[in-house]
Amino acid sequence: MPEATFYSLPEEADTALRQSFILRIIEKVQAQGLSLLLRCQDRDEALGMDELLWGGRPESFIAHALVDEELGKPPPVLITWPQARQPVAAVLFNLASELPENLPPCRLLLLVEGDASARARRREQWKWLKERHWQVLSHVLKAGTA
Fold first, then answer.
1. What is the count of structural domains for the chain?
2. What is the pTM of this model?
3. Are 56 and 62 in contact (CB under 8 A)?
């Protein structure tokens, strides 16, 4: 059974806190030895995530690349966006507001953040996944846990 985990950010989360949580979640997946596809809202966000991962903590370097870069063997973390190629990975960390059209059975991670309409969209995605027999989990992230 595919699994989806929704990570709820505090409503007061700023960009730095959001980025800290994203890095921590990616580090946890990397520690498990799983491949990860980080799906951003658009190419601009993907470039920002690429920069964030290069600037992460030196002791926990995250090998990664943008999906449109020429690669030999792909690194454990590939960064993509809806208009780009969508390779399959063990874990899909979806930062985009919408789910991919052809969502593969995988371990799906999503952030719940933003205004009421963004949170309502994630609630609809929760329902949609449950209707399709996904195991759905939730974690409420607190500012002191990053």
1. 1
2. 0.92
3. yes
